[in-house]
Write a structure and sequence with these properties.
By secondary structure, the protein is α/β, with parallel strands linked by helices. The chain is built from three helices and three strands. Strands 1-2-3 form a three-stranded parallel β-sheet, with helices on both faces. The chain starts with a strand and ends with a helix.
């Protein structure tokens, strides 16, 4: 699989709030856009991580994403270390 545009964010819903419109425009222009969420938003105060992932998949369809993924890293404990970087690099 290849994408033209990939947005990476810490939590499900971050991309919708920061660059969702841009991703929609990219899809409308014919680009294959994707989103990679690093966590499921486990530390959020509303809903469950499972529900947040479900909502992100629904939002992805609305944004006309070609692909959406989630690495399920520990929320509020993201670290810039070799293991995290390698996990992200392999996915990219």
């Amino acid at each position: 699989m290849s994408l033209d545009v990939l947005a990476i964010a810490a939590h499900p819903d971050d991309v919708e709030q920061t660059c969702g419109g841009t991703l929609i425009r990219m899809a409308e222009a014919g680009y294959r856009s994707g989103v990679l969420d690093l966590t499921a938003g486990d530390m959020g105060t509303r809903g469950t991580p499972e529900r947040r992932v479900e909502e992100s998949e629904i939002a992805g369809k609305e944004m006309r994403l070609y692909w959406r993924g989630n690495l399920h890293m520990p929320d509020a404990r993201l670290e810039n270390n070799i293991a995290a970087r390698m996990t992200l690099a392999v996915k990219i």
